[in-house]
């Protein structure tokens, strides 16, 4: 009997992945203006029914856990809100599109900056080119911070992902990015609570996030950069 597809967070330890969930590595690619645009396939890992992914960022057997979290006294305390996404999100509307934006989920992969940025694009979403770019930016947002909605139908624009996990490599910042969880895989807290099940979400794998288990960009951002971001969006 196969195990349930799930990610279980171990207190101050790794992510335990069950259910033979495929694991890939993809790299951020940019457009001619050096804006993050898409992700390219790099590698597929052997399928395992169960595997443990490093959460502290110090394993010598990346991406897998090797027990280093115990040696270094890793503090993996989960601090992220368990409120549903839509309760955390702000709403921005244009002629044909509505954007919901929950800043706390942002992993700073920067896919929303092309062509002036997604908020500018939705303001002129009656222009078909602007509308299409906005849809591309929202649906590639790994963290699920951004969700774009069709105002006529009320439906979100979402890619259909098979349950899978992607290790993102950030070519611009020259570092490992977050763990991209796709296809509505349940994520279980160390205490047994289930986080809201979503089509797209990113988990921290550097051990530095201040919004664990989610990625907050700490794999490349300094404390000052994160503070400036929070001030910009009025998060403090």
Automatic annotation (TrEMBL):
InterPro entries (alphabetical): CISD (IPR052950), Divergent_4Fe-4S_mono-cluster (IPR010693), FeS-contain_CDGSH-typ (IPR018967), MitoNEET_CISD (IPR042216), UCP009180 (IPR016548)
Domain Iron-binding zinc finger CDGSH type: 38-75, 188-225
Keyword presence, Iron-sulfur: yes
Keyword Flavoprotein among record annotations: no
Keyword terms of this UniProt record: 2Fe-2S, Iron, Iron-sulfur, Metal-binding
GO MF term (any one): 2 iron, 2 sulfur cluster binding
Annotated Pfam families: Fer4_19 (PF06902), zf-CDGSH (PF09360)
Stated name of the protein: Zinc finger CDGSH-type domain protein
């Amino acid at each position: 009997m196969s195990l349930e597809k799930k990610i279980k967070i171990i207190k101050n330890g790794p992510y335990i992945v069950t259910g033979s969930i495929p694991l890939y590595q993809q790299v951020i690619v940019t457009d001619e203006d050096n804006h993050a645009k898409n992700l390219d396939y790099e590698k597929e890992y052997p399928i395992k029914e169960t595997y443990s992914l490093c959460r502290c960022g110090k394993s010598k057997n990346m991406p897998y856990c090797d027990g280093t979290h115990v040696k270094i006294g890793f503090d993996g305390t989960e601090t992220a809100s368990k409120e549903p996404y839509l309760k955390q999100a702000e709403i921005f509307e244009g002629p044909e599109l509505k954007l919901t934006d929950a800043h706390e989920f942002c992993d700073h992969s920067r896919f929303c900056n092309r062509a002036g940025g997604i908020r500018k694009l939705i303001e002129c979403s009656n222009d078909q080119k602007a509308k299409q770019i906005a849809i591309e930016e929202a649906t590639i947002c790994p963290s699920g911070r951004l969700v774009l909605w069709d105002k006529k139908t009320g439906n979100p624009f979402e890619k259909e992902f098979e349950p899978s996990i992607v290790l993102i490599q950030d070519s611009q910042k020259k570092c490992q990015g977050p763990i991209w969880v796709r296809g509505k895989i349940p994520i279980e807290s160390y205490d047994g609570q289930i986080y809201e099940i979503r089509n797209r979400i990113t988990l921290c794998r550097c051990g530095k996030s201040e919004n664990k288990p989610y990625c907050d960009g700490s794999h490349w951002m300094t404390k000052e950069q994160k503070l400036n971001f929070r001030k910009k969006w009025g998060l403090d």
